[in-house]
Write a structure and sequence with these properties.
With 859 residues, the protein is an alpha/beta fold. 40% of the residues lie in helices and 17% in strands. The protein binds pyridoxal-5'-phosphate (PLP). Belongs to the glycogen phosphorylase family.
Length: 859
């Protein structure tokens, strides 16, 4: 043995690999560099000329890469670029588009109006950026595009998901397979967000016993910047933290809480690091409600305000848009788990745990912390997303406002819209420019202009419809035959289906998430009747279905399977088609190509719905239950509506009735109008409906109208109020908080001394007579200006929720010591049976609305 030899070698301390990022870009010749610039701003998505430019480079690759210009530029060969360099037409077109792009940005260099910071869990901007699942995301994406077009000063925040939402494929049996593909961030339109020194910006969020690090990415949408937080960072040692942002709406409730902490708390920190100091904070759905907490903490830390003072400032500048009409749909977290994660927060805002917890609860006894309640408590403006949904939201949130009647709650609405330039077919855009003027759609808010559609000859309208339908049928044949072959579908069946798809048949589309309330099954209640409808040889009809079911929603998946099975039956082949993987591109093709868009939600569960709005701009007629936007949109001779009133309490009966009504309307009205042709084979009644739809329905449902509503109803008034409370070193915020504190501590001591009500009121009153009511209240140490007394009269008969007939403020005749006399002379002027009540409310002309301060005393 050689004892002098090596005895033992220590295990080395090896460091983790250190990765530095390099990006190798393709060999694009210098002179074609504008293409690179254009590919990195999503402006191209809604500008046809830019699209055409990319398509021209290589049509085949363009289709293969699913219209992703970043991938396209990587994959096109050097030789092809050399060719393009010498292609004069191409080069001049490129410079033309590039010039337009630069001019567009230049016109948006200096923007007026308050700066809005917009927060959303998802954004649907383009299929290549998989950070959306459905309507909520598409809406947010459209909104950003419009903000850019409309020169609104807006910056947005969201999360960057490595896997995003799933891609749907169906197997032979119609079962949904959910595939999550990792996004390669170098191949999508995101880039690192850098600080002034060129360092990649990171934000930190405290989790129990550790700190989460997230990188910040930037997406350019015209002049709007969207910042996305990404937790998949090597500095996060725990795997479960790196995967926080892997999936959109995946994972469990705990992961959801972690995501929402990142979005809300981290989102505000990101904006700070980026140098933003926005005026208005818009919380799109409750997911981002922690923004209010983080901002309050900042005010406390940086300006020395107290919690209540900071809350005044934050409320004034925050607006909360709720999208969910059922209470169960609102995010909430069990109090134990919530405390585990959020325990460190209350000390930062000067609250005890139980005080903090009440920000997300309507009563002490609830065991969940509700994000919509938090958002409501920290927002002055609250709105639903259609007129009907605004009302429904009052019911959903009413527990927060005890003492107020549902009807009087300050919860408004802004009806959702869609981005015209994204969703309108190029063929229609041309017609619109021709008849509405070259300036269109910049002047889309001038509704008169849309009336020019009546000048378009029927033939021109009908040719477009035919062309778009044909384009859709070809698209489906091509793209979806491939899928069917891949899943080993019987070739005979494929041929049968493809052969039967008919570019001239009345084509009806139904595509959306397969959530139960959307009732995708409705059409299939009576298969015999349906078979009769689709197989009429003189008047054929075909239905195209698409949509994803959430991976945890078994019922939704079963429904898809059921439709796929039906579509394979001999009598339905080529008549009912289920097309897989509903995404933005497919939505566009469908909404532009079908003749009728069908929607069958259970009322009032479709908060707004937007896909039908995309249809109407393309002359696609809408046929829907009167729910969501269609309540406002439907007009006679511009689509069809299922009656609003519910006939049966039992859902099954209601479904039966609705299904039969749908079949009848289809047979008697829709099919009738479509196949009623004049000597030129044009369905004049149909083209008339199309014109009515474009003139009278479409203009109301653009994001142009929507963003203007937000500005007028929320952003501008709240900006003013927010300046009012912050000016002069937060003078008003401090005063309001002090006043509220004062009133709240005195409130329970208020004492009603006497109520004098004339006999008539308690028995029977007569119209034309006068009934003086006198109430004496001991207001203790409050001032007489602080208190108002109201008489509320409601009409009760026949409805569960009282309907307000009148709210009257009493006159304060004066106070002796602390006893004030309130008087009102009641003059009844309508016969009927009413209820009445009195209530005391704090009074202050600087309250934005009554419900801003929840103190009410009914007497
Ligand atoms: C518009 C759109 C939606 C939302 O449609 P609804 O009518 O609101 O259900 C969902 N997914 C995609 C891909 C869309 O384009």
């Amino acid at each position: 043995m050689n004892s002098e030899g090596v005895r033992f070698i220590q295990k080395p301390v090896v460091e983790q690999p250190v990765w530095k990022r390099i990006i190798v870009e393709s060999s694009l010749p210098e002179s074609l560099n504008p293409l690179r610039v254009l590919s990195k701003n999503l402006w191209w998505v809604w500008n046809n000329e830019a699209r055409e430019l990319f398509q021209y480079i290589d049509q085949e690759i363009w289709e293969e890469c699913a219209h992703n210009p970043i991938v396209l530029l990587d994959e096109v060969s050097y030789n092809r670029f050399k060719e393009l360099e010498n292609d004069e037409i191409f080069v001049s077109k490129m410079h033309h588009v590039y010039g337009k792009f630069n001019q567009y940005l230049e016109e948006r260099n200096h923007l007026e109006g308050p700066q809005v910071a917009y927060f959303s869990m998802e954004y649907g901007l383009h299929d290549s950026l998989k950070i959306f699942s459905g309507g909520l995301g598409i809406l947010a994406g459209d909104y950003l595009k419009e903000a850019s077009d409309a020169k609104v000063n807006l910056v947005a925040v969201g999360l960057l998901y490595r896997y995003g939402y799933f891609k749907q494929t169906l197997n032979l049996h119609g079962e949904q397979m959910a595939n999550y593909e990792a996004q390669q961030f170098s191949k999508i339109p995101v880039q690192p967000a850098l600080d002034a020194e060129g360092n990649w910006i990171e934000v930190y969020v405290e989790y129990p016993g550790r700190t989460l690090v997230a990188k910040v990415w930037q997406v350019n949408i015209g002049s709007v910047k969207l910042y996305l937080l990404d937790a998949d960072h090597h500095e996060n040692p725990a795997e479960q933290d790196r995967s926080v942002t892997h999936h959109l709406y995946g994972g469990d409730n705990e992961n959801r809480l972690k995501q929402e902490m990142l979005l809300g708390l981290g989102g505000i920190r990101a904006l700070q690091k980026l140098g933003y100091n926005s005026d208005i904070y818009h919380c799109n759905e409750g997911h981002a409600a922690f923004i209010g907490i983080e901002r309050i903490a900042d005010y406390i830390k940086n300006t020395g305000l107290s919690f209540e003072e900071a809350k005044e400032v934050v409320r004034a500048s925050t607006i909360f848009t709720t999208h969910t009409p059922v209470p169960a749909g609102h995010d909430s977290f069990h109090k134990d788990m919530f405390r585990h994660y959020m325990n460190h927060v209350p000390p930062k805002i000067g609250l005890e745990w139980n005080e903090f917890e009440m920000l997300g609860k309507a009563s002490e006894y609830e065991d969940h912390f509700n994000m919509s309640f938090l958002a409501s408590n920290l927002s002055q403006g609250i709105n639903g997303v259609s007129m009907l949904h605004g009302e429904v939201s009052k019911t959903v949130l009413k527990d927060l406002y005890q003492g107020f009647l549902e009807e009087e709650l300050e919860i408004g609405y802004v009806t959702n819209g869609v981005h015209y330039s994204t969703w309108t077919a190029p063929e229609w855009k041309e017609i619109h420019k021709k008849y509405f003027g070259e300036e269109f759609p910049a002047n889309q808010l001038d509704f008169e202009i849309w009336n020019n559609i009546y000048q378009v000859p029927d033939n021109e309208i009908w040719q477009i419809r035919k062309a778009l339908r044909l384009k859709l049928i070809n698209y489906i044949k091509q793209r979806f035959a491939d899928n069917w072959i891949k899943r080993n579908e019987n070739p005979k069946l494929i041929n049968d289906v493809m052969g039967k798809l008919n570019p001239n048949a009345l084509t009806i589309g139904f595509a959306r998430r397969f959530a139960t309330y959307k009732r995708g099954y409705l059409l299939f209640r009576n298969l015999e009747r349906l078979a009769g409808i689709v197989n009429n040889p003189d008047r054929p009809v075909q239905f195209i279905f698409a949509g994803k079911a959430h991976p945890a929603d078994k019922a939704g998946q079963d429904l898809i399977k059921h439709i796929v099975e039906i579509s394979k039956r001999p009598e339905f082949r080529g008549k009912i088609l289920f097309v897989q993987n509903y995404d933005i591109n497919l939505a566009k093709m469908l909404l532009q190509g079908v003749d009728v868009w069908l929607n069958t939600p259970t009322r009032p569960l479709e908060a707004s719905g937007t896909s039908g709005e995309k249809g109407v701009m393309n002359g696609t007629l809408h046929f829907s239950v009167l729910d969501g936007w269609w309540v406002e949109g439907y007009q006679k001779d511009a689509g069809w509506a299922l009656p609003a009133e519910r006939t049966y309490d039992v859902q099954d009966f209601q479904d039966e009735l609705d299904a039969e009504t749908i079949y009848s309307i289809l047979e008697d009205e829709v099919i009738e109008a479509y196949y009623d042709r004049n000597h030129e084979d044009i369905p004049e009644k149909w083209t008339g409906f199309i014109k009515n739809t474009i003139a009278r329905v479409a203009p109301n449902f653009t994001t142009g109208r929507m963003i203007k509503d937000y500005q007028e109803r929320y952003y501008n008034p709240q900006f003013q109020r927010s300046q009012f409370v912050t000016n002069n070193g937060f003078k008003m915020a401090k005063e309001m908080a002090a006043w509220k504190f004062n009133v709240s501590s005195a409130w329970k001591n208020l004492e009603v001394k006497s109520i004098e009500i004339p006999d008539g009121i308690t028995n029977k009153m007569s119209i034309g007579k006068e009934y003086p009511i006198v109430v004496k209240v001991d207001i203790k140490n409050l001032s007489s200006e602080d208190v108002r007394l109201e008489l509320i009269i409601t009409e009760n008969e026949g409805s569960e929720t009282p309907k307000i007939t009148d709210i009257i403020e009493f006159e304060n005749l004066g106070c002796e010591n602390s006893i004030c006399t309130f008087k009102y002379n009641l003059h009844p002027n309508h016969p009927g049976s009413f209820n009445y009540g009195f209530r005391l409310l704090p009074k202050n002309r600087n309250l934005p609305h009554k419900q801003d301060f929840g103190y009410v005393k009914w007497i």
